[in-house]
Each structure stands twice: as structure tokens, then as C-alpha cells.
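hey team, just a heads up i'm posting the complex here instead of the shared drive bc the drive is being weird again. everything in one block, sequence lines first with there labels, then the predicted structure for the whole assembly after. its two chains so it's a bit long, scroll down
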Amino acid sequence: MPKGDYLGDVEQLILTAVLLLGENAYGMTVHEKVEELAEGIRDVSLGSVYTTLDRLETKGYIKSWFADPTPERGGRAKKYFKVTATGDLAVKNSLRVAGNLIAGLREIGGVA
Amino acid sequence: MRWLLPSGKRANGNIEHTPIDLELQLRRQLASYRRLRLGEVRERITREILMRYTEPWDLSRAEENLSWSIKCVQTLHSGSHLTGEDRARILMGRDDLLQYVASEAMTGVDQAPALAEFLFYLFLDSKTCDALVGDLNQRRRFLLQRFGRRQANFWYWTQALRSVGPVAWVWLRKLILRPGVTLLAWMATRGFLRDGSLLDLVWDWVKKIRG
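-- predicted structure starts here --
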């Protein structure tokens, strides 16, 4: 991963949520998953989810497409998201760094 | 009635309708009405009613149809399914469709707050905006069924106001960034960024003052 391509905490959360949701990743489900993952730690609005998803797409970490409009959404289409190979690698790298941090803290007894 | 004819399934050249087909068709119809201007909808409905209900006995039937239609619209909008009896009645009389779709469009039953939606249209492209508003509508419909309209609208407004901040900030950054990059490119082509240029002299002067 080139220098400067590190994921921010919200980016990491959202990318992980999209990965976990698989085929069913669209705005609202991603938002719900993020709330579930960061419960009591981080509060992310639906607008933040969309702007972050847009940024991740610009970086090439995810791709998106629109489904057909559905009546229960007032005739509006869902925007689905999927993690690309680059995005997958970015998440793995982020998790590896987090893992190293945890391991380091465990060595000095900082984390149970 | 051309614009209200359900598509249904085709078998042996004839159009057939199952209750589920019909309900899907109705939901789609309701959704398309939301996009029409109210004046236009009212004009259409008035025209259709004048064409259909010309006899005195027809007027009482129209009234009864209207109240039943409103009930059906409210059922569909709360996310519930129609009863078998209602479905059968719709299948029997096609003009009932007109009544309850019309009543929904004219009274604006259970519509999401339009001003909250508009906030997103200011800062997002239309497709992404539709997706975001669709997400909010989907969730609002669930809350409407569970807690009622006031709570659902309160939630909708809260989400809209919380979400519009980040969206507006990104829009503003893009707005500033683009002219900034253009200005820098223009300055570079005009030689304003070279060594010994006016800008370079100003920069040296600033450094001297700060030093």
C-alpha cells in the first residue's frame, strides 16, 4: 500500500461493514452495521456513511451500482456497494497494524 | 384508465393478475404518483371522476369508494399487506384503483417531510441523493408502522439534520478545491510560481518578517 493510503477509523469501520454485509451492502444496512460495530464508541450519521463511501470509491477501495427503484422506498433505487481487491488489501493491512498494536500493548500488560 | 392498467402476467394472450402482482403494481403506482406535482394529479383525477360519475347513484358509490381507498392507501403506506377481501375488491372493479391512488396523491397521506429531503438535493448529485432519501424513507416506514407518524417524522428530521452537515462540508470542500487548483494551474502557466517571480519575492518578504 503506497504511503498516504492509510484508512481513517471511519473508513476502516465502513469498509469492514461492507465486507461483512456482502451482497446486501447498501446505505442503510451499512449504517446499521457500523452502529453495531462501533456501539457506544463512535456515532456515525447516514450522511457521513455516504460521504465516506464516496471517498472510498474515489480511492478505488469499493465499487457501486444502482438497483431498480422499489415502492417501499418511495420509488427510489438502492445504491449497492462491494469491496474491490484493493479495498480488501487495505482492510487487511489496517487490521494487521491494529493487531500489532494490541500485541505490543499486551506485552506490557496494557490490554487484557 | 390507460395509465392505471396493471401489467399482470400474460397467459395464452390474456392478462391475468394474482393478488401479489396486483399489490406490487399498486405500490409502484403510489410511488410514481409521489413524483408528480400535486396540481397535475388533481387535474387528472378531477377529469377521471367527471367522466365516470355522472349519474346520482354513482356519486354515493364514489364516496364509499373514496373512504375505502384511503383505508387501503394507509395500509400500504404503513408497510402492511392488504386483506384478501380488499384485494378481491380491487380485482373486481378497476376504477377503485383510481380512487385510492388519487386520494393518496391529493391528501399526501404519510409522506416524508419534503423540506428535509430538499436539504440533500442541495448538496448531492440526484442519483446518490435518491439513494440516501430512499434509505431514510425505508427506515421511516418501519418506524411509522411501529410508533406512528409524529415519532417517524421526528426521527426523519433528526437523521436529516445530522446527515446534512457532513454532506454539506464535502460539497463545500469540493467547491473551494476546484477553483483553488484552477488558480494554481493558471499561476504556474503565467510564471507566477517561478524563482524570482513576484510571488516568490512576496514569499521571501513574508519569511523575513516571520524570521
